[in-house]
Design goal:
alpha/beta; 423 residues; 6-stranded parallel sheet; globular
């Protein structure tokens, strides 16, 4: 926390893989008028490695922390996943958010398949491939070439992130989609984006501006995804203008007696006042209930489709359900309702175990065309290539060496495709 104890509160949220130090070059100016509260995501910058289940979970943890330090109403600026947290707060707790700035944000971050695929890469290879790719994703080429110290800082920041928390954040973003709800955002919003952002660029920013009733667009020239780092002065000026226009009496100040929680987060290579760690306990998110059938039993179709997409991926499910509707629709409904809505959603086994059982059954039945699909699903469900190898070795004893040999050929191709870091 920085700034006067009795000033209006401004909360700053970080991007995935980054720490609160991404805002270092804004703090000096912002803290002249506001009490600035920065936070780290789980497993980032020394924060407790307690993976969050969803963006709503992250928002609830943040609110619990703000409650603990006496903050009721506040302005909020968040970058990337930090922007997703801001959108969730504005939609679910508009009583707490007085004004909103969305930096490099989107109502939906890519596709669920892409984000879950990134989790598979990290689970298999660790964070090193993501860390090495971060400068190209975050900064323009010219900035990266001119600022090697900041590039090194960015790589190290990602390297020191907890892999399980990073994977969980990817899963959280995979299920985040508020495109249909943007019209309910009832606070003034600044949508700020780097003109050269290749991750969540101007197109996503314009979607936010078109959907949020009281929103304006700010395009920052010469900036990529981490615009606050690459173009600090321009971003600071835009934030000051936006939050200065908000009624300051709607933002509750932090009590003088509130004390920050200490942290040893590594500093960025740019000067900034010391900051302090904030964290809080998580809150579980509720699963949606299905519509009741006439006899009163919940219909498993909708939860089945949700599980089917989470396990197999949107691309595969879309292809499977896009055939001859008159001929295959009833079969696809049966599979979705009973295989995925009933069996895969039973509480007796977790998804990792169900993937192991499914792969074994497919090897035994010689269903190699389905095995490829479920090896890919197993990786998404958290099984490592080493664990899949052990399962297939086990099938050699109980299903036969020829069956296991054929299965290894299929699985090897899938594992290579899914676990090779993408440039």
């Amino acid at each position: 926390m920085d700034g006067p104890d009795d000033a209006p509160v401004l909360v700053l949220g970080p991007s995935l893989g980054a720490t609160w130090h991404m805002w270092d070059r804004q703090v000096a100016d912002l803290s002249a008028e506001w009490r600035v509260v920065r936070y780290d995501l789980p497993g980032h910058g020394g924060a407790p490695a307690e993976p969050a289940e969803s963006v709503a979970d992250l928002a609830d943890r943040l609110l619990a922390t703000l409650d603990a330090i006496g903050v009721q109403r506040f302005g909020y600026a968040g970058c990337s996943i930090g922007g997703a947290v801001g959108l969730d707060l504005a939609l679910r707790r508009p009583d707490r958010v007085g004004s909103l700035a969305l930096v490099a944000a989107s109502p939906r971050f890519g596709t669920a398949d892409e984000l879950r695929g990134r989790g598979v890469i990290v689970r298999t290879n660790g964070l090193e491939p993501v860390a090495l790719a971060a400068p190209a994703a975050w900064f323009t080429d010219a900035f990266a070439a001119a600022q090697p110290a900041i590039v090194d800082w960015a790589v190290q920041m990602v390297r020191t992130t907890d892999p399980a928390c990073y994977i969980a954040a990817c899963e959280a973003l995979a299920t985040f989609d508020v495109r249909a709800e943007l019209g309910r955002v009832a606070v003034p919003a600044l949508v700020l984006v780097g003109a050269e952002d290749q991750v969540t660029g101007p197109a996503e920013a314009r979607t936010l501006v078109a959907g949020i009733p009281d929103a304006r667009l700010a395009l920052v020239p010469g900036a990529g995804h981490l615009a606050p780092v690459e173009q600090p002065a321009a971003v600071t000026d835009l934030l000051v203008q936006h939050f200065s226009a908000a009624p300051q009496d709607t933002l509750t100040a932090i009590p003088l007696q509130a004390q920050p929680i200490a942290s040893a987060a590594p500093a960025a290579p740019v000067a900034a006042p010391a900051a302090s760690q904030v964290s809080a306990a998580s809150a579980a998110s509720a699963a949606p209930a299905g519509a009741p059938e006439p006899e009163g039993r919940p219909d498993p179709y909708e939860p089945g489709m949700k599980t089917r997409r989470e396990v197999l991926g949107d691309a595969y499910v879309d292809a499977a359900t896009a055939g001859d509707e008159h001929f295959t629709a009833d079969f696809q409904e049966l599979v979705t309702r009973y295989a995925w809505g009933e069996v895969w959603n039973r509480e007796g086994l977790d998804r990792r175990t169900r993937s192991a059982v499914t792969m074994t059954a497919l090897v035994a039945g010689g269903r190699l065309e389905e095995l490829a699909v479920h090896v890919r699903a197993a990786l998404r469900n958290g099984l490592t290539p080493g664990e899949i190898k052990e399962i297939l070795i086990h099938t050699a004893v109980y299903c036969g060496v020829p069956a296991a040999n054929a299965a290894f050929g299929v699985a090897r191709t899938v594992v290579r495709e899914e676990t090779t870091p993408r440039s």
